[in-house]
Amino acid sequence: MLIFVERVRGKEMVNFNNNYDELAMPGDWIPIVQKLQSQDGTVIVLGKSDSGKTSLIKLLTYFLVKRNRNIGIIDLDIGQSTLGLPATIAISTVDKKKLKDGNIPIEHMLFIGMISPAGCIDRFLDRICKLYSISQKKKIDTLIVDTTGLVMGSIGIYLKSSLINRINPAALVALQSAQELEPILSQFESRPSLQIYRIKPCQNIVQRSWRDRKLRREKQFCHYFRDSSAREVDFTTTTIRDFNFGLSFCSDNDIVDTIKQKFALEPVYAEKIQNTVVLILQEPQSFPGKDIFINIKKHFQVEQVISILPHWFQYFLISFNTTDGFSNGLGIIKNIDFEKKKITIYMPGSISAENFSEIELGQVRVKPDGTELPYNEPVKF
Q: Tell me, what's the pLDDT at 50?
């Protein structure tokens, strides 16, 4: 169970027990919130980072639940998540009892594996739709969707426009200080079934720097992994999916044997994935020459060869997925032994082998103490 929090005036609001009703709202927010009281269906909240999206959602949730509305919340902000963990999206529902308690339990979570959707838009959108389909099976009067701050440029416009087209909401609430959201909103002005509300961002929201955002994620990770321990998983019996290259971790021995015989290399793992051969080599004293990789490309008729050493996988964030693809929790890779087919993972105490059927690798690297590490591109030829 996680706490639904947001910073206003530099403080974290950790519960709903205070009166965050009309008195807490900026004056121009009140008429919009009142209109949304009778708005069934889905409401998507749009805005740049630090525009007050999550504060508006918190206030709107309080307002509507107090008026006997059953509310669903989908948190899509994978970089600054408030319902779930960084690199995930999540859904929760709120009724009067949960409102009184102030704790919003996560009901379903999906792993994205990145803290920005820019590098995984189609994957991001597909998983949003999966989460949205779950919401349609719940007894919800209004579903509120909190989005990422990526709204500018061609990527931001494509992402938000695609989100709106796929979900087909009843209303958009656009927090914009000037005209920054108009390239998105103008595409939907003529849609008769869609209400668009434009309001000014909250002036009291604390502006976070890149460093502030990183520190917040690190605190979340540190808290989550505080009781973790290193445990081994046999990946001959557990499916592993890799977001980086699409590795299946089921090595074709013929490829390994061919590379050993023809190119005098000693890979511990090799896999051909479409137009790429991925090699995982033993930790070498000296890296093989470029000519070897060029010859491997020619032999297997691929466009590129990616060469990785086993320690490259250390500290990658992973998800423990159920058979239907939902995440039951996160872990961190300590090391992978490709010869013994064992992966050692820092796992919270709440995770057991019965909780998951698949391990999924993302592109976020983090230590168990929460420290974020850079993603290092592997060597490509």
A: 81
Residue 14 is predicted with a pLDDT of 32
Helix crossing, 290-300 with 253-263: angle to 10°? 130
Say which residues have a Cβ less than 8 Å from residue 259's Cβ, sequence separation at least 6. 265, 267, 270, 279, 296
Instruction: State which residues of the chain have pLDDT below 50.
Output: 1-23
**Judgement on whether residues 235 and 198 belong to the same structural domain of the protein:** no
CATH, residue 138: 3.40.50.300
Distance, CA of 323 to CA of 154 (rounded, Å): 35
Whether residue 81 is found in the same domain as residue 185: yes
Instruction: Tell me which amino acid residue 8 is.
Output: V
User: Of the residues 159, 175, 208, which one is the last residue of a structural domain?
Assistant: 208
Same domain, 247 and 204: no
Which pLDDT does position 286 carry in this prediction? 63
Which CATH number do you get for residue 250?
A: 2.40.30.330
pTM for this model (two decimals):
0.89
What residues have CB less than 8 Å from 123, skipping those under 6 apart? 112, 243
SS (H, E, C) 108-134: EEEECCCCCHHHCHHHHHHHHHHHHHH
Q: How far is CA 333 from CA 116, 141, 147, 207, 321, in A?
A: 21, 41, 29, 33, 15
Each residue's pLDDT tens digit, 14-39: 344 444 444 456 777 888 888 888 77
pLDDT of residue 285: 60
Q: Which domain holds residue 235?
A: 223-381
Q: How far apart are CA 157 and CA 144, in angstroms?
A: 20
What are the pLDDT digits (tens) for 156-188? Answer: 999 999 999 999 999 999 999 889 999 999 999
Query: Do 35 and 134 reside in the same domain of the chain?
Result: yes
- Has residue 50 been placed in a domain? yes
* Residue 280 belongs to some domain of the structure: yes
Domain end point (choices 170, 185, 208): 208
pLDDT reported for residue 10: 32
H-run or E-run covering 47? strand 41-47
